[in-house]
Structures are given as C-alpha cells and as structure tokens.
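Work package 3, deliverable 3.1, input record:
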Amino acid sequence: MNVLLLGSGGREHALAWKLAQSPSLTKLYAAPGNPGLAQEAELVGLDASDHATVARFCEQHDIALVVIGPEAPLVAGLADDLRTAGIAVFGPSQAAAQLEGSKGFTKDLCERAGIPTARYVRANTIEEARAALSKFDPPYVLKADGLAAGKGVVIADGIEQAEIALAEMFDGRFGDAGAQLVIEEFLEGEEASLFALTDGGAILSFGTAQDHKRVGEGDTGPNTGGMGAYSPAPVLTADLQRQVLDDIIRPTVETMRAEGMPYSGVLYAGLMLTDTGPKLIEYNCRFGDPECQVLMMRFEGDLAAIMLACARGELAGRDARFAGDTALTVVLAAKGYPGTPEKGGAIDLADAEASGSKVFHAGTSAQGGSLVASGGRVLNVTARGRSVGEAQRLAYEAVDRIDFPTGFCRRDIGWREVEREKTRD
Ligand code: AMP
Ligand code: GLY
C-alpha cells in the first residue's frame, strides 16, 4: 500500500523510519517532512490545513492510508474530511480529538465515566477562576482549555502567583486556548505514559514510556515539549497497566462510542501514579514526541498494517509486539529553547549513529548541502540497551559523536530509573 504521513518532527521521522520497514508498504510519501525523514519517504509540498488538496493528492497517488502525526490537524478535522472522501486515516475525528483539544471536555468525560483524575473546576471568566482557587490548596494547577503546544499548564506555589497567572491567561498569554481554564487539584506522584491503539471498539495496549518535560537537569526549570524519554516505563508494572486499561482507557473508549464520538487512532494517557492508584492527568490524541521515538525503536510488527487495521475498524484480534529491551532518547535542542531558540546553527552528524543507535531529526533544515538547526528541539539521539542505564550510556556516546555547537541537552535522561536499577543491583 501507499501511505501518506503528515508532520515534520522527530515523532514523524520515527514513524517514517518504522513505516519504511513495513512489509505491507509499497511507497511512503510525507509532508512537509524534514531532511532526516527524506531518507525514508518522498517529501511532497502539501499543506495539512488545505484538506481538499490533501484528499486530491491521495486520490491521484493511490494512497491507502493517511497517518496524521501532530494534534493540530486532528483537532482541525482533517481526518473527518479525508474519511468523507473515502480515504482511510490513522487518527481521530475532530469530535474525538477533543480529548486533547479541550481539557475541560476530558475532565467532564472523566466525571461522567467515573475515571480517576484530579478534582477540578472549569472557569470561563477571571471572576469564576478566582472564586475557584478557594476550593483548592496550594500548589494551584491552572490549565488553558485548548491546545497550547504543551505549554498551557501553570503550577503556582501560592495564591498571589496563581492570581497573576490567571490574569495573564485571561489576557491572552496562550491566545484563544486560554479563553477558558481548568483549575484542578495538585496530584503527587511519579508521571508515566501509556499508549493504546483503538478503532473505537477494540483496544490494544501499545507500550509505556516516561519523559522529562522540564528543560533542566534533575527535572527543574520551565516546561518543554519533552527533553528525553525512555520505554518501557518499569514503574508501570503489568498490574498497573491492567488497572489503567480497565479504569481509564476502556471507560473512555466506551463512553466516546456511546456518545457518538468513537475514538480511532492512538490514545496517549498521561498518568500520575498516586498513593491511591493511577490517575489521568491528560489525554493526547497522537503519539508523544519524543515518546514515539522510543516506542518505534522497540516495536516489532508491521506498522503500516496495524495502523490500517485501526483505521478500518479491524483491530480486534491483532497483537503488538515490542522488543524486551529498553530504548532511550536524548533531545538535542537549540540554545534558548524553550524560549527563543537560536536558528541556523551548523550540525555535523557524520559517524553519529552506531549499531543500536539512531538519530531522528526534529528541527533541522538542509542549507546549501549542509544541515542546520531550524527549530527548538533539533535532534533525538536514541539508543537501545539491556537496561535504562545501558541505553542511556549508548545514547550519550552517540550525542558526543555529534558536532552541534549551538545545541544543548540534558545529561540525566532516565535518572530516576537508572538510580532504581543501581539499588536493585
Ligand atoms: P499537561 O499538559 O496536562 O500534561 O500538564 C503538563 C505537566 O504539568 C504534566 O506533565 C505534569 O507534570 C503537570 N501537571 C498537570 N496537571 C497536574 C496535576 N493535577 N497535579 C500535578 N501536576 C500536574
Ligand atoms: N512529550 C510530551 C508530548 O508529546 O505531549
């Protein structure tokens, strides 16, 4: 089959790399892609916001499946328009993508379905938001309702900071995404993610991961899209995974279907492992970035075939096999990230990859035959090992073979698990 992949980040490079290995793939197209992805797919100049042109391209190129990488086109309803044109799509409808597109929608759904999550209040005005603060203890968790590129959450230690943040949010700090807020209880625990494929009925567990959202070592400093990740997440034991599937994922999929918004694609549950069990922090309607990179390193099946089965409602009876080892990825970002990243810095990747390691491109451009940084998160340096410690060592060895003077990375990706491994040894 011919497949069209939409997106341009490290997640999409990893998906392209795995799709290209699919026995059922004939030809892979990608738009807009990036220089790394160009080694796996033919890049085409398509604008994902122009749904009619994407549909026409699919008809002209005999595309059997469109894989939508990022959330924005899903929330904008691209999957709906392609399905209306008779094209199979991996990714949810606009209605189902509200699970990521509106935090308030998801909280209300959790309430209706009895899904464990933080206690919350929705606020449409600053007065409502101020009044809601009194219902919670510090630290205060304030969330812009809509999409804010992973930066729409403020955790304020005290009431003054919370009031200032509220004022900024209603003043347009996150644009329209902050026109409504969710204020919720602060949850204590360790975070982990579980991925599940679903066609609206059948559910297939699709791996676990942990990422590092803060820019600084020891998980300090501002939030980012993610500075590194590893998979699997040993904290999500088989028992806990079962609990998440039974108490969180299944009731979500069943409620969405019962309410006429069947969810199809990958459902990414961000979880807090609290003393009273796993609770949902948020849903995403796509793979995590950089979590996808570590999942793809370990996935052993035919990715195009399983995504097509998902798109066609034929997931029942399928299985997903992952290698038993660990994959770990380190994000090389451009200096300045997550603020204003320095663009145009030269990158030399010669000799970077060795056996068991892989460099995914996230924010790179080709300029006169050489490679330069063109985004905040630039490269995802990924390695596999028998333990998190070994994968970490191999990933940093690959990082050290890369020449990227205007880049930086955290040197402690995986630290929690590496420490636990040391105490076990
Ligand atoms: P989100 O965009 O909802 O994933 O939130 C971003 C980050 O904020 C999460 O990864 C958590 O680290 C933190 N966070 C969000 N909600 C809560 C909560 N209720 N309690 C504690 N931390 C939270
Ligand atoms: N790494 C976090 C995310 O993709 O949302």
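The chain has a mean pLDDT of 95.
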